[in-house]
Amino acid sequence: MFNIKQKAIALIENRVGKTGRVLGVRHWEPGGFVEIDLHLPDIDMYRFSSVQHIKCRVAPAQYRDYTIAGWDAETHTCTLYIHTAHAGAGSNWANNLEEGDEIVYLGVSGSVHSATERSTLLCLGDASTIGHYWALQQLAHSGRANLCGAIALDHEAYCGQLNDYLRMNVQPLLQTDAGGETVLLQWMQQELLKRQHEDVTVYVAGYSPAVATLRRQLRSLRYGGALVKAQAFWS
């Protein structure tokens, strides 16, 4: 059965598969998070109006979606920010990439997250959302929105590196549970109280159970509907 699946995917790759080139790789200390610079000549990045995900082949017959961030439409370059602290085909692939390697991908598709016209975009998530919110900030900068928020991280060293490497107005928080649910809840409640008179859209992404809990709490605070945009990445 697996061989049949592999053959079917190989046919799809031959029809719609495209390639890119690794321009550089940077591993955060002490490991478990990696930045991958890519050249993707077949992607028209001028058309990006929402956060975009690229479906990369990470092993035979296996694909993972990663966010295209920090893109330059003129040079067809971008960066993937991948949390690799967990075991899996995607983490193994990302950790072993080197400059000059070729990658194979099936395509690019938009996510449910795009920059709204509201004045404040408040973002909440874990390490898996760093690239996602970096991309959202790039979209927000084309308008008048202000992006801020908090990201829960699973290693103290990442907290400093997040501020050193990326110019994002987000507060790094050291998580105490999966997905940083507890620290994100505490931070969110305090922050929304301070911003109760602002025009706010709340973005929630990352660990599925944490996303669900944050959404429930937001509803209790009368944030719902178009005011909350949620997207789970992993469980």
From TrEMBL:
<dbReference type="InterPro" id="IPR017927">
    <property type="entry name" value="FAD-bd_FR_type"/>
</dbReference>
<feature type="domain" description="FAD-binding FR-type">
    <location>
        <begin position="15"/>
        <end position="115"/>
    </location>
</feature>
<dbReference type="GO" id="GO:0016491">
    <property type="term" value="F:oxidoreductase activity"/>
</dbReference>
<dbReference type="InterPro" id="IPR039374">
    <property type="entry name" value="SIP_fam"/>
</dbReference>
<protein>
    <recommendedName>
        <fullName>FAD-binding FR-type domain-containing protein</fullName>
    </recommendedName>
</protein>
<dbReference type="InterPro" id="IPR017938">
    <property type="entry name" value="Riboflavin_synthase-like_b-brl"/>
</dbReference>
